[in-house]
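In this section we walk through a basic example: taking a raw amino acid sequence and producing a predicted 3D structure, encoded as discrete structure tokens. The instruction is simple. Fold the sequence below.
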Amino acid sequence: MTQHGFDDEEDDDFPEWVDRIRNNVAGEVRRRRKERRWSAQRLADRCEELGHPIPRNVIANLESGRRANLPLVDVMVLAAALETYPICLIFPLGYVEETQALPFHPLIPTWDAMRKFTGEEYDIETDSGLIPEFNRHATLTRTVIAARREAESAAFAMETATTPAQREEAERRATEYAQRAEEAKRHLLNLRDDIREEGATPPDLSPWLDDIEPQPDEDIDPDQKEDA
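The resulting token sequence is shown next.
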């Protein structure tokens, strides 16, 4: 596929951005529907089962390019009906090589356009909200859980060691992973405080980590609880 630039705007074969995105969705809906060997009516029935009816003729018009508009709610329900994610209809990785991120922008790899859409590729001039913080929260959560598990495994190995050398190595590993868990936990709690200072609510903690942050009523003095 030939890479296009801004000079291609006058090319009749260069579709408008809206048309391109709609064509992406239409092509992927059609491909996934046929892959399931569903008729347009079967897909329409499934959308209705999900609570947002999309008539068969509307689906047929979308797939054939006769439908002029494409509401976001339709994309969401079509994706659910086809058991995929809405973003996979908008940016069909592996099936559409290049697309546009915005009107009048040059074509870029579909993977790059998707990463811009999800916020995985940050633009220094774009307000990315709390996406970086929530991504870091997920990373720190995984780190704490993994380090705790490794520490528990090493502690068990220490208890069942049959030689001093095995016990020493297990103790070293237990101490190392316990320290990693505590360090990641400290960073995680600081991050949650930072999110709250932004006036936002941090993500729910994993059940594996429900011990690292006091519940709201745990900060209240027992005498105050009685008065309440």
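Looking at the output, two observations stand out. Confidence is low (pLDDT under 50) at residues 1-14, 224-228. The CA atoms of residues 98 and 110 lie 5 Å apart. In the next section we compare this with other chains.
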